[in-house]
Amino acid sequence: MSEQFDYQLAFSRNIGWVTEDEQAILRTKRIAIAGMGGVGGSHLLTLVRAGISQFNLSDFDEFACENTNRQAGANTASYGKKKLDVMVEMAQAINPEVDIRLFPEGINHHNTEDFLSDVDCYVDSLDFFALEARKHVFKLCADKGIAATTAAPIGMGTAYLNFLPGKMSFEEYFRLEGYSEHEQYLRFFLGLTPAALQQAYLVDPSRLDLANKKGPSTMMGCQLASGVAGSQVLKILLNRGKVLNVPWGLHFDAYTNQFKKTWRPGGNNNPIQRLAFNIGKKKLLGNLSPTATTNTKPLSLIEKILDYARWAPSGDNMQAWQFEIINETSFIIHGTDTREHCVYDLDGHSSHLAHGILLETIAISASQFGLNIESTNDFTDPQHIKITVNLVADESIKPNTLLPYVKIRAVQRRAMGTRPLSESEKAALENALPEGFSVTWFESFDDRLKLAKLNFCNAKTRLTMKEAFHTHKNIIDWHQQFSETKIPEKALGVDWATARLMQWLFKDWKRIEIANKYFAGTLMPRIQLDFIPSLKSCAHFAIQADKEASSIEDYVNAGRAIQRFWLTTAKLGLGFQPEQTPVIFAKYLRQNIEFSQDEAVVENAKKGKAMFEALLDNTENTLFLGRIGRSQLPTSRSTRKPLTELIIKT
Ligand SMILES: Cc1cc2nc3c(=O)[nH]c(=O)nc-3n(C[C@H](O)[C@H](O)[C@H](O)COP(=O)(O)O)c2cc1C
User: Boundaries of each THIF-type NAD/FAD binding fold domain copy (predicted)?
Assistant: First the structure.
């Protein structure tokens, strides 16, 4: 064991993948790296550990807090320090013999010649948006016969391209000339990632902000990129292995488990690239003026809380609420109901549950600011309820552990994994309910089969009932993956053919009547929406109160309890699907609330009620029925109305 730096020893574990002679060659090579930020710092450290000992490095910037997630040199001690100085120090700490020439003003038209002098290979790590400098340095590399490689961190993967002397050049591949600044960014991006593997999981596209020259980036992408760039450089320097030149490109994505080799003869002039450019222009550049900046007014404290709370779920994503801001610490929730047009809400209590869910979400959201909520109810008009919320500073309030799940929580209507809930999972869910509420589990195959039969029967009531036709017709956003005010088709959990059948049926009630009479038209939706997923779950549950809910307040309080339970499933990484309509029809029958003119429908609902009552005691105390399963987050979901639409303008 030696504690003295010794080149041979320090890099001896490279030997095997390279020979001793090759390692000696690497020691003599000089690499130029432009940019020590996002990926440049990782590139440098990788190449230093490969044993390369001479570098030309440029960067004019300083480290700051926002670099922390991905830049190798960014940490609390380096904030405010020159990136170049910090990275040189790190490189020297690895190999004290490194010979580094510094270009602290960054690279520009005046110093690029110098920057590339004596260089064996150029590794691109300029800021994505530094296109002028990039074009210039790649042009000079081509003129001087210097191999250049670019491995870009893209999402949780890397896309890489090489530009070898005498082969297709940067400009021939990207073809940027003659395009506007933003179009050039788009063309550069499309050329970098022809396989576009990252597209599948960009969860917040708004963070790709061309106008303000910002985009999301991860350390995983940076590290993968550096691993790849290091390997390309090594092959180029040692003249080993096949090095691909553009128009070939490679993209490895660790998130989607994919690796794609792309070939785009003509570069961005290739028809596939041209098509992608035209689509991208519409999608990304549509509303972008050349000087556009996002200049949105910062949200007030109440708006921040409500911006979170608006993600509370509501029946059919109706969001039957608006907010009136009174002053800096209080506001009124104006809650309406959907009884006029929704057969599942004839007494307004489904909406009142949602109002309670909203109130609990507000309390959870306020906790991030150390605030408690005090609320006063005005339920004199049941169809227009008012809840005044006061925010009260409270030192004992810590951010609620359910807070990060408020926006993530979503309905999973598809079949889920059936591995039983563990005792600790069940305990966490039971403990999420406040006093006065309890949960009954239905876990065995037998029990789940009973629930499957109940849901299958209940679906017949729903789908053959004229009174529900308009709700169903209007609530589905056909062909959509996301929907602000409805349920998108892809979140329904039916296959494409069944969706088309449903869309066709929902055009006209007569079609449903005929289909039901002669072709068992509701069979496929009932099997796909209810029967199969009821079995393919780990448990069904019924949330019950100690006594039957009768007042609006009872329902609002129940809503608060339900939201804690629901968010806890999200926290446990479980999928969740409400099965609320059997509860609703059983209540209508119990309380003689007329919900259908069709006797056959009422008879079927009675059958469902009997099945429900056979399942558990005190069904009248049941406030929420649903199922839980092992599931990833759904890829399709309802989103929400923007906050601006929910705040009443005074
Ligand atoms: C009180 C209440 C009852 C619900 N009942 C059902 C139901 O019976 N079936 C269903 O598929 N979804 C039901 N939902 C889920 C809503 O449709 C869903 O929350 C809404 O569309 C928003 O979608 P998200 O929860 O995925 O964000 C219910 C939601 C609430 C709040």
Answer: 12-261
Cis peptide before 247 (omega within 30 of 0): yes
pLDDT at position 238 is 97
- Are 186 and 275 in contact by the 8 Å Cβ rule? The answer is no
Residue nearest to atom 6 of ligand 1 (CA): 578
Six-digit token string for 283? 């999608």
Maximum separation of any 2 CA atoms in the chain, in Å: 91
Provide the domain limits for residue 450. Answer: 415-645
CB-CB contact of 401 with 613 (8 Å) = no
Domain boundary among 393, 423, 446: 393
Mean pLDDT of the chain: 94
Residue 428 has what pLDDT?
Answer: 98
14 and 101 part of one domain: yes
Q: In this structure, what CATH number is given to the domain that contains residue 376?
A: 3.40.109.10
Is the pLDDT at 421 greater than 50? The verdict is yes
Whether 448 and 582 map to the same domain: the answer is yes
- What's residue 376's pLDDT? 98
Substitution site in 310, 314, 351 for ligand 1 pocket (most atoms within 8 Å of beta carbon)? 314
Query: Which residue of 355, 576, 580 sits with most ligand 1 atoms within 8 Å of its CB, as the best mutation to test the pocket?
Result: 580
289, pLDDT greater than 60: no
- Centroid of chain to Cα 556: 30
Residue range 2-30: average pLDDT? Answer: 96
Expressed in angstroms and rounded, the spacing between residue 542 Cα and the centre of ligand 1 is 15
CA distances from 589 to 154, 460, 482, 511, 594 (A): 57, 16, 35, 28, 8
Q: Element (H or E) spanning 24, and its range?
A: helix 20-28
| Across 614-632, average pLDDT | 97
Q: Which of 180-184, 366-370, 454-458 has the lowest mean pLDDT?
A: 180-184
Cα–Cα distance list, 547 to 88, 254, 260, 423, 551 (Å): 70, 52, 60, 27, 11
Q: Residue 122: which of 143, 98, 95, 96 has the closest Cα? A: 143
Q: Average of pLDDT values for 120-144?
A: 95
